[in-house]
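User: Here's a protein and a ligand (SAJ). What would the complex look like?
Assistant: Let me lay out the input and then the predicted complex.
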Amino acid sequence: MGLGYIGLPTAIIAAKEGGVDIIGVDINPSVVEQTNAGHLHIIEPGMEEMLQDVVKSGKLRASTTPEVSDAYFMVVPTPFKGNHEPDVSYVEAATRAVLPLLKEGDLYVIESTSPVGTTEQMADIIFSERPELKGKIYIAYCPERVLPGNVIYELVHNDRVIGGLDEASTKKAQEFYAQFVKGTLHPTNARTAEMCKLTENSSRDVQIAFANELSFICDKAGINVWDLINLANKHPRVNILQPGCGVGGHCIAVDPYFITSDFPAESRLISDAREINNYKAFWCVEKVKNAILEFELQHGRKPVVAMMGLAFKPDIDDLRESPAKQITGKVMQSARNAEILVVEPNVKSHDSFTLTDYREAYDKADIVAFLTAHKPFKSLPWREDKVILDFCGIFKK
Ligand code: SAJ
């Protein structure tokens, strides 16, 4: 249920590596049509060829409606509402769609990132509508952990955490995933598995916030933060992550809210980390605006400014929930006293931005703001004649 960034690759790998017969269900008819035509509607290297193989062999078929199966997987989005409260309505809608099809011996699994207690909540819905299935079906939570861009490898090789509502459910889900996962399948209960997913991404968010906080301190103290982190990491028990222009994507900047929303009094560090990482993007905007003002005062003319990178992390073309894109938009809105060149080497064109080649922009610009640490940027030479705002460590070496 759900043929998005996780559901579709999981369906393809389970069909290809595990030989499982899959019906991939999505409410979007265009996704279903494209999948059946062997066209991958998401961006993931190497995945389209695999999709074509499994569609051709008949192992994977997409549809807008679920069909009677032996196992059902909920892999739909869990966004948050206005006040950062998790919205599990898609999980509930997918569950209600398969409810009439469930039969004795079936496996029902939630993979969507979910607040603690969601699996129990869905089980309550299932058993209130189908009380005769109580004790007769298997229910588990099994979060995904794959890194976009490396999904083919990670879906097979990563360890997974599997939490059933009871031991028999955990075992049944382990048997299913063992068909295509080579990593270890760690058994636990559903609540722990739900919290484990939220913990993994919150842990990364907190660690990035520490690096971003160091960047604020170092900026005031006149210390190069990249040198500092490199040196601190020479300690055998210190491993600090890298500061950047903020935290983007659909997971790390979202999942911690699933904890802070349910446990506000207990999650102060997680909540502060979110605020620090959100604030980092605004801090970068202010830095660029100040550099523009100073340039104008010093040179008596408008500067040319290059905004380098729009993607939410290095070497991908995914611009969704990207702090780099947000910063560029804000600088363009507010800095009327500058000519802004926008650079994103991984994207051919964009509706809101006219894109410039990275070498040309670097050459022309008086002020250069590095927002995303794409590989090609690292081959650019340091230029004393430019104001360089290196928010992502392009020149850290
Ligand atoms: N970032 C930094 N500094 C760093 C590392 C990352 O600023 O040192 C920024 C990136 O630029 C990006 C954001 O953090 O804006 C997130 O990038 P990421 O590479 O840390 O993670 P995602 O969002 O691509 O994938 C994460 C992964 N989770 C963890 O590493 C704990 C992945 O394994 C999960 O499957 C994925 O979230 C998910 O779907 O939950």
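Summary: The chain has a mean pLDDT of 96.
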